[in-house]
Design a protein that fits this description.
mainly alpha, Citrate Synthase, domain 1, Cytochrome p450-Terp, domain 2, two-stranded antiparallel ribbon, 17 helices, globular, binds carboxymethyl coenzyme *A
Length: 435
């Protein structure tokens, strides 16, 4: 018998089955042959929240959560953050290799020339309430792009796919900036093709009456590094949403709107906003021990702590902490940093957090930097969505090129009623107003 197999004995029938093991996994469909009789559907795995189920083979991002390692296409995140721009990293995620100088030039040119959005989309954004959450606007605007580019549904045409990928990478910062300006009641600023990806984003956010926006280079680089750190994170909640919606062959705008919706929740990308609100609530370093005590009593979670995959310090959090120091040299120190550092120190020495392997994640420090840069907390998750678009699209493309993938459709274990009958007469339903 081959070594890379698993033998299972079904004690219900005393039958034994030998299943192949490949890449450390068995195929769940191989379990289906394990039956008690011809009417038995066959054995399934039960795995709420995919705690131990691989949904795909992927060559994009590697995480070793126990050792705190994150790599895109084989490159350590520290290496990429140090030596690359976000657009180079986006190219790497999407194409598998860093661009040559010629490829880089062409890629930057294409993205730069697609940053404008249709005036109808601009007008659409302007009709949201002034206090609409920018994530709600972004999700809606991404979905609305599907109506501007109906050809995007030709997902089996690689050239058509490439075009939509360029558009989504190029236009997401524009949509994000428009939603931000709208929430402030400011007129929108059109893209400026002279500027780099992050400089142009800053231009669309913050240009006022000056004839030409000049970005602070330290801030522009910090934002670029933050974008690199957030670009992909393998099969997280939003990547899984992108793949799940995309598996129905919806176009990439609709799929990306689904992914952005998943990102918006406080357990995922919304955590950076929640961290800031938590630090506000703590208010002072002196209140940290009392706050940690409450968390240990089960009264809430320490936002920005813990991760499904990392059971060690999140490598992105370490780089962000350094980036924060660079930003604070320009903006002045955000006083919330002291509360965050005190919170981290108390938590990392506490048995509750040690035994559960809870460490700061990417969101713990990012919000503090964003606030120092001048962003309101409700913009933080949008800042996560912009770079994550590259990861979502890389995951989407890999899905479409994977011949083993089909429409995503999990099974369930039905525990509801057996067959029963309606025991009342049918009635018509009519809404009316009585006066
Ligand atoms: N504060 C206090 N306790 C926690 C925390 C936390 N932040 N996270 C997990 N725990 C506890 C949890 O209560 C459980 O304890 P017990 O075993 O006594 O029931 C144990 O640790 C295991 O937690 P879990 O909920 O089973 O872990 P999970 O893998 O399902 O959840 C998580 C991962 C990220 C959703 C969770 O750690 C969390 O809610 N963290 C706070 C929100 C956050 O920072 N999210 C951003 C994640 S990183 C960026 C991203 O993915 O977008």
């Amino acid at each position: 018998m081959a070594n890379d197999t698993l033998t299972i004995i079904d004690n219900r029938t005393n039958r034994s089955y030998t299943l192949p093991i490949e890449h450390g996994t068995i195929r769940s469909m191989d379990l289906r042959q394990i039956k008690t009789g011809p009417d038995d559907f066959g054995l399934m795995g039960y795995d709420p929240a995919f705690m131990n189920t691989a949904s795909c083979h992927s060559r994009i991002t590697f995480i070793d959560g126990d050792r705190g390692i994150l790599r895109y296409r084989g490159y350590n995140i520290e290496d990429l953050a140090e030596n690359c721009t976000f657009l180079e990293v986006a190219y790497l995620l999407l194409n598998g290799e860093l661009p040559t100088p010629e490829q880089r030039q062409e890629w930057v040119k294409q993205v730069t020339f697609h940053t404008m959005v249709h005036e109808g989309t601009r007008s659409f954004i302007s009709h949201f309430r002034h206090d609409a959450h920018p994530m709600g606007i972004l999700v809606s605007a991404l979905a609305a792009l599907s109506t501007v580019y109906p050809e995007a549904k030709n997902i089996s045409d690689p050239e058509c796919r490439r075009m939509q990928i360029v558009r989504l990478i190029a236009k997401t910062p524009t949509l994000a900036a428009y939603s931000y300006r709208h929430s402030l009641g400011y007129p929108i600023v059109y893209p400026d093709n002279d500027l780099s990806y992050t400089e142009n984003f800053m231009n669309m956010l913050w240009k006022m009456v000056e004839p030409k926006y000049v970005a602070n280079p330290v801030m522009a680089r910090a934002l670029d590094v933050l974008f690199i750190l957030h670009a992909d994170h393998e099969q997280n909640c939003s990547a899984n949403a992108m793949r799940s919606v995309g598996s129905s062959q919806a176009d990439p705008y609709l799929s990306a709107a689904g992914a952005a919706s998943a990102l918006a929740g406080p357990l995922h990308g919304g955590a950076n906003e929640a961290v800031l609100r938590m630090l506000d609530e703590i208010g002072d370093v002196r209140n940290v021990p009392e706050y940690v005590k409450r968390i240990k009593e089960g009264k809430g979670k320490l936002m920005g702590f813990g991760h499904r995959v990392y059971k060690n310090y999140d490598p992105r959090a370490r780089i962000i902490k350094q980036t924060a120091e660079d930003v604070f040299k320009v903006t002045g120190r955000n006083p919330k940093l002291d509360i965050a550092i005190a919170l981290e120190r108390v938590a990392l020495e506490d048995e509750y957090f040690i035994s559960r392997k809870l460490y700061p994640n990417v969101d713990f420090y990012s919000g503090i930097i964003y606030q120092a840069m001048g962003f309101k907390p409700d913009m933080f998750t949008v800042l996560f969505a912009i770079p994550r678009m590259a990861g979502w699209l890389a995951q989407w493309q890999e899905l479409l090129e994977d011949r083993e993938q089909k429409i995503a459709r999990p099974r369930q274990v039905y525990l509801g009623h057996e067959l029963r009958k309606v025991e009342k007469p049918r009635q018509t339903e009519r809404a009316f107003v009585t006066r």
